[in-house]
Write a structure and sequence with these properties.
384 residues, single chain, alpha+beta, 5 strands
Length: 384
């Protein structure tokens, strides 16, 4: 046991200096709090580091080892795809030489696409594909990535690669020509059978007086419908006759502020009254009258122009001065009237045949119908 004197002495010391022990205790708790804070911040930094590494792995991929260069095209790919990619590159280089020229070649040579094996999600799981990345020289690309089947042929691979080159060709083109083309790519590839048939169906079925005149080989009407050269008068009078107003008002409406025209528009769509259709159509502002032809048909005509001009046609199109009509004539190297007539002949030649039903399909349909009827009769027959 301690002596009473020692106890008294300790009590006096604690009474005279309480702050020293309190400060020591506070310092210990502060140190422990700081250590805990450091541990928390360290765990946060570790988690963020994992997230950054994951994002980096998603955007930064190893460059494929095989380097293929031909003409203005430089592609990186895998060794397993090299033979197919070589054939596809040769096909696209031929397209550039036949229709593109130095403009397309310069924009294509500034990019380094990659063609690698990849996969995509589907209903039945992951499907193997071939991914075509438009550009590896920059992190972000407006063109993006295309995918084709893993067992795609050289022609299918070349078609996707040519689509990327077509988009590159329109980069840097002036706003006037870009606004006329509208689709954001150049027609370097030949037209498919489906595209030609679609163009014929649109021209033949669109209710428009200017298109009827165009099909009757009125070249000025064709140029007006294509947005190349305007005829006198307002758009409504040039492009649509009174019998076309009802069809026109299915895709256009008068301004909401014009209550009389809105009521007439509603009655035109519901009843089909010619007078109401005329009131609603006349209320349309000139800029709101829709074009009689879509951008797809205009694109088909541009393809005809480049075909006529041959090598360097696209160069002449983008570098020639003057109006759109002047530039198209320079690209085609012929009067545009001749190009229009040849384009009309090709469109009329793309008229689809009536669908023929194969005899096997007819026989199969009749067989299944007879079987279903027999089963129905058996089901209705009472059992003995």
């Amino acid at each position: 046991m301690s002596s009473p004197r020692a106890v008294i002495l300790l009590t006096v010391v604690l009474a005279l200096s309480p702050g020293r022990f309190v400060r020591a205790q506070l310092r210990a708790s502060e140190t422990e709090s700081l250590l805990q804070r450091v541990r928390v911040l360290d765990s946060v930094m570790l988690a963020r580091g994992y997230a950054v590494d994951s994002i980096r792995r998603a955007f930064v991929r190893p460059v494929p080892p095989v380097d293929i260069r031909q003409g203005p095209i430089h592609v990186r790919t895998d060794s397993s795809l090299a033979p197919q990619v070589q054939g596809a590159v040769a096909t696209v280089v031929a397209l550039i030489e036949r229709r593109g020229g130095t403009w397309v070649a310069a924009r294509t040579s500034a990019r380094v696409p990659t063609i690698t094996r990849d996969s995509t999600r589907s209903i039945i799981g992951m499907l193997p594909t071939i991914a075509i990345n438009a550009d590896t020289t920059s992190r972000w690309s407006a063109i993006g990535q295309r995918s084709v089947r893993a067992r795609s042929s050289v022609a299918e691979l070349a078609n996707s690669l040519a689509g990327i080159v077509e988009q590159l060709a329109m980069q840097g083109v002036d706003s006037t020509l870009t606004a006329w083309v509208m689709v954001g790519r150049a027609p370097l590839r030949p037209a498919s059978e489906t595209e030609a048939v679609d163009a014929y169906i649109e021209i033949a079925t669109t209710e428009s007086i200017v298109l009827r005149r165009c099909r009757a080989r009125d070249v000025s009407a064709c140029l007006d419908a294509l947005g190349i050269d305007s005829m006198p008068g307002s758009r409504l009078d040039r492009w649509y006759a009174p019998e076309d107003f009802r069809s026109l008002l299915r895709v256009a409406a008068p301004p909401r502020e014009d209550s009389v025209a809105v009521v007439a528009w509603m009655r035109c769509r519901q009843v089909g009254d010619d007078a109401d259709c005329g009131v609603a159509a006349r209320a349309l502002a000139n800029a709101r009258v829709p074009l009689p032809l879509s951008a797809a048909v205009r694109f088909e005509f541009l393809r005809e122009v480049l075909d006529a001009g041959g090598a360097g046609a696209f160069d002449r199109l983008v570098t020639s001065p003057g109006t759109v009509k002047d530039r198209l004539s320079a690209a085609a190297r012929e009067p545009l009237d001749r190009t229009v007539l040849r384009w009309l002949d090709r469109i009329e030649g793309s008229r689809p045949e009536r669908m023929r039903i194969p005899a096997v399909l007819v026989a199969g349909t009749l067989g299944w119908t007879g079987l279903i009827l027999a089963l129905a009769v058996i089901r209705r027959t009472p059992w003995a």
